[in-house]
């Protein structure tokens, strides 16, 4: 359903809170107080069959008893009551519901399935269940039980975790970062991350989209929405479960150890999204990209009054894959004219600890004109010679003047003021200069911007539709996939994998199937003749984890040992999984790297 009905959900004229009580710990009371505190201008009703009054508001026993039809219903009632509440909402014509309650279950016959079926039949959009709620500051809507109200801004936050959403609200308040919308999706019974990507991509009030995700269930829908959104505005994602111990969800042991996160990483890159690895980085990127700060490339020029901090910045830049700008001969000549003879004569441009504002400006002028750099990082370590605040003010004025006079896009300028105070921060904020407390933070932020630019370019790249170095056997590949789909299987078996890879010329370990022990010995013969040891592995489409049933034996060098290994793994499988269908075994040569 994508964005259908979401406008009324996120900009409702009327809201009804269903459930809760006057107890301080009640979810319903928390939501009601948040709605009132947010300054919501529309009508607010409370539905509760057990209390006549909640927080001074008279209640009605059910939605059908309301004198108006609410656009949005916020549900905090017990799980068992929710299908009936959704049915009442459908009867009166409600546009959407936010289900904060948990415990609705999953799958056929569950409370969740019943509620979802009713909602879909009547076009009601559902957010949740098991979520913290929805916050749209510009609409004065805080339909959540978050502890604090977010401020209005130009960044949208979509989170699969209510706790993470609440934490990010607190973090953003400290950073003075506002939101165009915050949606905690919970169990994604209806509205999912892809729907919200579609919505906020088209939202004129949103400049950047932040994602916190734990898993993707509908990969095709997610990728389509992500690619479309990333073409319009920055999409920055944090995904938990990068390590196997955190994920606990991969379908095979090797996948749990290495593969799962690599797939997500590749998908994010291909979709043009920028992946970061913690909440601090998320906000740094949101702040920069939300304001349109994107460098032309990865070459950074550094200006500093401290040699040590300059070297640290260069080291971090190299570690993260950036490049120290190679100053042009004209730039070096210009710097020679305005700086003392002992300046560093290279990048970073070290103008010594006694540098005052005038020296900073002279050096900055030369660096801003250098076509060999894509951005300039101005750093300062405060000394008793020149106040850091005065230098910051001078730099801010000069950057503003330079931007005003340039007819083309000016280089990105960043600042790192060690020991910065509120006045210095305010100076850079007013000038629109990204600023950081350390050189490490500044360089990391620059490189995230570089990666975002690279992701944007990759998004528009189109791979060739026909391979240039070989002719793929497309018909054979499609035959493999069609067979698996027709049998409604989730996995390709080992023989099918080899056939698929060979159709596209991808090197893969030779794999042959054998029905029984004698057939296994025969099939292993050609490998053994070449002096290769072989592996015997159980072949069963019903058993994914072969090693769990002792279904793998390695390093076999004779026909007799192969036959015995085949008998052994088949016997083990029959004992451990008598319900499984066994196709036999597979034979593979041992590969020594």
Please characterize this protein's 3D structure:
The chain is α/β, with parallel strands linked by helices. The chain has 4 domains: 145 residues, NAD(P)-binding Rossmann-like Domain (Rossmann fold), CATH 3.40.50.720; 128 residues, Rossmann fold (3-Layer(aba) Sandwich), CATH 3.40.50; 152 residues, Rossmann fold, CATH 3.40.50; 116 residues, ATP-grasp fold, A domain (Dna Ligase, domain 1). The chain is 42% helix and 18% strand. It is built from 20 helices and 24 strands. The strands form 4 sheets. The protein has a 7-stranded mixed β-sheet with strand order 3-4-2-1-5-6-7, sandwiched between helices. Strand 5, helix 3 and strand 6 form a beta-alpha-beta unit. Helix 3 runs parallel beside helix 4 and helix 17 runs antiparallel to helix 18. The protein is flat and about 90 Å long. The chain starts with 5 loop residues before the first helix and ends with a strand. About 3% of the residues have low confidence.
SSE inventory with pairings:
Elements: H1 6-10, E1 14-18, H2 27-37, E2 43-47, E3 53-54, E4 57-60, E5 72-75, H3 82-92, E6 96-99, H4 111-122, E7 125-127, E8 133-136, E9 141-144, E10 152-159, H5 162-175, E11 179-184, H6 193-201, E12 208-213, H7 219-232, E13 235-239, H8 244-247, H9 253-270, E14 274-276, H10 279-289, E15 299-304, H11 307-319, E16 323-324, H12 329-338, E17 349-350, H13 357-368, E18 375-381, H14 388-405, E19 412-418, H15 422-431, E20 435-436, H16 439-460, H17 474-486, H18 494-503, E21 512-514, H19 517-529, E22 534-539, E23 552-556, H20 559-576, E24 584-589
Parallel strand pairs: 1-2, 1-5, 2-4, 5-6, 6-7, 10-11, 10-12, 12-13, 13-14, 15-16, 15-17, 15-18, 18-19, 19-20
Antiparallel strand pairs: 3-4, 8-9, 8-11, 21-24, 22-23, 22-24
Helix pairs in contact: 3-4, 6-7, 10-16, 11-16, 12-13, 13-14, 14-15, 17-18, 19-20
